[in-house]
Amino acid sequence: MEVLAVIGLGLIVIGGIWTIVAAFKTSIGWGIGCLLIPPVSLVFIFKHWDEAKTPFFVQLAGIVLLVVGSAGAS
């Protein structure tokens, strides 16, 4: 089950980087904001749903895998 947790963590990181890249593609201000102030990423996701929905769902899948993998390890 630890493998699921590691895969989940990897998906969370990939989704986060993907969100930052999408923010930089929108504007340098969004990119810097998402990079330096994590809550700005949530605002970016809501305001630019079309660009940010795929990385959001990748992170969401990662969170699910992390929780399932961590719960099974106990």
Walkthrough of the structure:
The structure is a single chain. The model has no long low-confidence stretch (mean pLDDT 94). The chain contains 4 helices and no strands. The longest helix has 25 residues, at 2-26. It has 74 residues and is mainly alpha-helical. Helix 2 (28-36) crosses helix 3 and helix 3 packs across helix 4.
Give helix % range: over 70%
Please report which band the strand proportion falls in: under 5%, 5-15%, 15-25%, 25-35%, 35-45% or over 45%: under 5%
Low-pLDDT segments: none
SSE class: mainly alpha
For the CA atoms, what is the radius of gyration? 13 Å
How far the N terminus sits from the C terminus, by CA atoms, comes to: 9 Å
Q: Care to count the β-strands?
A: 0
Give the biggest sheet.
Answer: none
Continuous helix count:
4
Task: Indicate the mean pLDDT.
Answer: 94
Broad shape? elongated
Order of helices and strands: HHHH
